[in-house]
Design goal:
Order of helices and strands: EEEEEEEEEEEEEEEEEEEEEEEEEE
Largest sheet: 5 strands, antiparallel
Number of domains: 3
């Protein structure tokens, strides 16, 4: 058996004192190892969430650190990621779940701790959809905030009173999710504005619903033509605020008491302005709504409703 000083082999062998091989001796005040052996296993190993983008690993050091004294190495998914550490380590990683263990090791061998899974959560963030797609829930979160609007309603057109389109319904709520799972996001189409009214009247069409998983926001209602129909009546550009956004309703156009009504704002986007447009010709269309807002009414062609929107956030 070899003699070790500071982990290096001393060429001499068979070191005896009074006929016996001691477990250790000191040479010039430095401990020299004779009977080296591996350390015992570290215990109580734990890998836990620390903060977004990291995992904290802790353990209880070996009760017998062996001869010579061991050092500790950290393994992630069976790959060495840190060496010569003491009694704790914070590992910076992207979000996700991984397995960890720590190994006590010296020249005589090694002993592993128990294995534990650690999850690094995703940092706070958000994702915006203006077209349909799929959302993957961030790791470490059980709920997200969904704010969305359905497609805006299309506006009417015609000779007399013409109605603006309504905004799609606005939904803002917490939705339960499972980290790493995918959820279908559907963005509602805006309703078509009325076309080719000529000297009569034509109606717009309703917007389509937006949805996140099983949570939905209805599309906006159409603008009707005539004095008895249903339509958004416009409000001279008043602000509408939702989900941190702010936008104006469309403005009304008045010509001799006959109104082309503005579309309703969604908060995400402005409602279309009403415009009689007879002087612009039959090919001209009134202003369309933006991001779930209703279209503005026109003389010949009403504005289209705006396509919906969905914002998913987590913190």
């Amino acid at each position: 058996m070899a003699i070790y000083i500071n982990g290096s082999v001393v060429p001499s062998t068979h070191f005896h004192i009074n006929g016996s091989i001691p477990s250790k001796v000191y040479v010039n005040g430095v401990q020299a190892w004779i009977n080296q052996y591996a350390p015992t296993s570290p215990t109580n190993f734990s890998a836990s969430d620390s903060s977004a983008g990291s995992v904290t690993c802790t353990w209880t050091n070996s009760s017998d650190t062996g001869i010579p004294t061991c050092t500790y190495n950290l393994y992630e998914n069976s790959t060495l990621v840190a060496s010569n550490i003491s009694s704790g380590y914070v590992r910076s990683v992207s979000s996700g779940t991984r397995t960890y263990y720590v190994r006590a090791t010296n020249v005589a061998g090694y002993s592993n701790s128990n294995t534990n899974s650690g999850t690094s959560i995703a940092p706070p963030g958000s994702q915006t959809f203006t077209s349909s797609g799929s959302f993957t829930a961030p790791v470490g979160y059980s709920s997200v905030t969904v704010c969305m609007v359905g497609g805006g309603g299309g506006a009417a057109a015609g000779t007399y009173h013409k109605g603006g389109g309504y905004s799609g319904a606005i939904v803002s709520q917490s939705v339960s999710v499972s980290g790493g799972s995918s959820y279908t996001v559907t963005i509602g189409a805006g309703g078509n504005g009325a076309s080719n009214a000529g000297n009569g009247a034509a109606w717009g069409s309703n917007g389509s619903a937006s949805s996140f998983g099983s949570t939905s926001a209805a599309g906006g209602g159409r603008g009707d033509a005539g004095t008895g129909g249903s339509y958004f009546s416009g409000s001279s550009g008043a602000n509408r605020t939702t989900c941190g956004g702010s936008a104006n309703n469309g403005t009304n156009y008045n010509e001799g008491g006959w109104y082309c009504r503005g579309g309703q704002s969604s908060g995400f986007g402005k409602g279309g302005n009403g415009n009689r447009q007879w002087q612009l010709g039959q090919g001209f269309r009134a202003e369309s709504g933006v991001l779930g807002a209703g279209g503005g009414a026109g003389r010949y062609n009403g504005g289209h409703g705006g396509t919906g929107k969905c914002v998913v956030s987590w913190s």
